Amino acid sequence: MCLGCQESHPKKExxxxxxxxEGEYSVDTTGKKAGxxxxxCPKQECFEAARKSRGLERSFKNAIDxxxxxxxxxxxxxxxxxxxxxx
Length: 87
Prior knowledge:
Blueprint: E1 15-19, E2 25-28, E3 36-40, H1 44-53, H2 55-60, H3 66-86
């Protein structure tokens, strides 16, 4: 289920955001990185909705620094650009 739009989608259509055991956050394109994961649609609107509703913070049971949100937003934008160029 997407944390932004709250809709269920097949797992392969969602992007996993993972918190590593060391406490670092990143976008997991393989779905195999170690750590706790949360899923969102690959849309900027869903990311912003998850950010506004604090969905990631609830999933990870931890406060997330605004700088982490900015880094995740940049990683998602890079994925969107890559996906558009492959089409």
